[in-house]
């Protein structure tokens, strides 16, 4: 099979390797689509828990090609997706019922072979049937599961006002989930007009076209639109400059969520007294662990939509072009590898 194989950070080849055979309890999946996201750029650089050698890719949809012994939940030919996150079940956090914080967490496409290949292996407990969902919708299962985890962590109250910085695919999905979770008003702020247009079509109440080079104006404009601030402010861009205006934009008693992926050594400043006397809650949200069933149900109900988000499709031989488009093509929204 063809696969993208990294020997070290930034050092990859696209080559033929043996197709794996499923062992007991495992499923061999023939990949139809594999999603490319910002995390893959971090992995390309050797960050985000990457361990080499590695086949990256953590977003996928495909069909069951073969079953290992003991697998009775799936049939050959069935369309499925995969939860790429594996917890150990035995560390202190797993024993406390917090597997998302697992000390020994593994991830398909991070430190296990992932989906940038014609075939991949997953244990049956990580595999989910997607029913009648099309591949173009099911490919969003993993980023939407991350957004679902974020929405659950926010504990959204009915009637809340929400502001999210970032109109990329996960930002779009989280904006929708905040609305369906009870937010009365959702504002999406981003620096690319066509992405904001997509947000409006997908149900955002308001959008704001921001200038990343003038966050002071962004802060002033958004406060002018909501003088008391917003009950929920989500930073989903990974920009430290944007993160620094989030607490001032948060309504007293509200929540600021750090959702975007930043570099490990990046920091931003907050006014500690402001957080203290206005009782601002600062909440992180990292990946997902158990939200695939709820996410697929949201897609199947039609309440969570992905219309128009896929803009670029590449073959596996064009993997380098896919990374470059993700890095620098302003017309790119969701990028997928097609097989």
TrEMBL record:
<dbReference type="GO" id="GO:0008270">
    <property type="term" value="F:zinc ion binding"/>
</dbReference>
<keyword id="KW-0560">Oxidoreductase</keyword>
<dbReference type="InterPro" id="IPR013149">
    <property type="entry name" value="ADH-like_C"/>
</dbReference>
<dbReference type="InterPro" id="IPR013154">
    <property type="entry name" value="ADH-like_N"/>
</dbReference>
<feature type="domain" description="Enoyl reductase (ER)">
    <location>
        <begin position="7"/>
        <end position="337"/>
    </location>
</feature>
<protein>
    <submittedName>
        <fullName>Unannotated protein</fullName>
    </submittedName>
</protein>
<dbReference type="Pfam" id="PF08240">
    <property type="entry name" value="ADH_N"/>
</dbReference>
<dbReference type="Pfam" id="PF00107">
    <property type="entry name" value="ADH_zinc_N"/>
</dbReference>
<dbReference type="InterPro" id="IPR050129">
    <property type="entry name" value="Zn_alcohol_dh"/>
</dbReference>
<keyword id="KW-0862">Zinc</keyword>
<dbReference type="InterPro" id="IPR036291">
    <property type="entry name" value="NAD(P)-bd_dom_sf"/>
</dbReference>
<dbReference type="InterPro" id="IPR011032">
    <property type="entry name" value="GroES-like_sf"/>
</dbReference>
<dbReference type="GO" id="GO:0016491">
    <property type="term" value="F:oxidoreductase activity"/>
</dbReference>
<dbReference type="InterPro" id="IPR002328">
    <property type="entry name" value="ADH_Zn_CS"/>
</dbReference>
<dbReference type="InterPro" id="IPR020843">
    <property type="entry name" value="ER"/>
</dbReference>
<keyword id="KW-0479">Metal-binding</keyword>
